[in-house]
Amino acid sequence: MSKKSTNTAQPLSATASLRELLDSLSKEQLRNQELLVSLGFALRSFTNLYRFLELVPVVASRLVSADGALLVPFHADGRIWRDQLQVIPVGESQELLRHVASFEPGKKLTFSSDPNQIIAMDHLVQNHLSTAGIFSTSIVSRGQSRGRLYVFNQKVPLIWSDFHSRHMQLLADLTGVAIENDLILQERRRHENVDRQLSIGAEIQSQLLPDSCPVIEGVDLAARCRPAFQVGGDYYDFMPTRPELMGRRRERGRWALVIGDVMGKGVPAGLLMTMLRGMLRAEVLSGLPPDRILHDLNQLALEDLSHSHRFVTLFYSDFDPRSRRLRFANAAHNPPLLWKAEQRTVSRLDAPGLLIGLQSEAEFGCGEIILEPGDVLLYYTDGVTEAPGLAGDRFNESRLIALLEECCLGGLEAKEILNQLFLRLDRFVGRDHQLEDDASMVVLKVSEALRLPSLR
Question: Which of 87, 240, 268, 439 could form a disulfide with 383 if both were Cys (CB 3.0 to 4.6 A apart)?
Answer without folding.
Answer: 439
